[in-house]
Write a structure and sequence with these properties.
By secondary structure, this protein is of the alpha+beta class. It has a domain of 47 residues: Ubiquitin-like (UB roll), CATH 3.10.20.520. It has two helices and five strands, in the order E-E-E-E-H-E-H. The protein has a three-stranded antiparallel sheet with strand order 4-3-5, with helices on one face. The longest helix has 12 residues. The chain is elongated. The protein starts with a strand and ends in a 23-residue tail after the last helix. It holds the Pfam family PaaB. InterPro entries: PaaB, PaaB_sf. This is Phenylacetate-CoA oxygenase.
């Protein structure tokens, strides 16, 4: 039987001879990744960005987000995303990014004529 330990709070970890155990480098709090936190409220349909926090891993980020951003039971779902994994457009790119849709008039309801036989539209 292999000896086990629950050192570090990560559950049973084998410690017997012949069991390879790779040490994980310890990160200081300064090196923890930054996470963006999104919470869906009880009555809301969408997750809303509520803030950011640092955490050592994804699971701890969810727990920390719950503790920090839903203290009064205002949420039903939490998303955490590493800030480094988010790609976003810049507000400076607003015109080149969104202007092309303005010249596609078929996307606007006023482009289409409503037939006379349609009672409600």
């Amino acid at each position: 039987m292999t000896d086990v330990t629950a050192e570090g709070g990560h559950g049973a970890v084998p410690t017997g001879a012949g069991v390879p155990v790779e040490p994980r480098p310890a990160l200081s709090r300064r090196d923890w990744p930054l996470y963006e936190v999104f919470v869906r409220g009880k009555r809301g349909l969408n997750h809303v960005h509520v803030g950011s926090l640092h955490a050592p891993d994804d699971e701890m980020a969810v727990h920390a987000a719950r503790d920090v951003y839903t203290r009064r039971n205002e949420g039903v779902s939490i998303w955490v995303v590493k800030s480094a994994d988010i790609t976003a457009s810049s507000p400076d790119e607003k015109d080149p990014m969104f202007a092309p849709s303005g010249d596609k008039v078929y996307r606007h309801p006023t482009f289409y004529e409503i037939p006379e036989g349609v009672p409600h539209m």
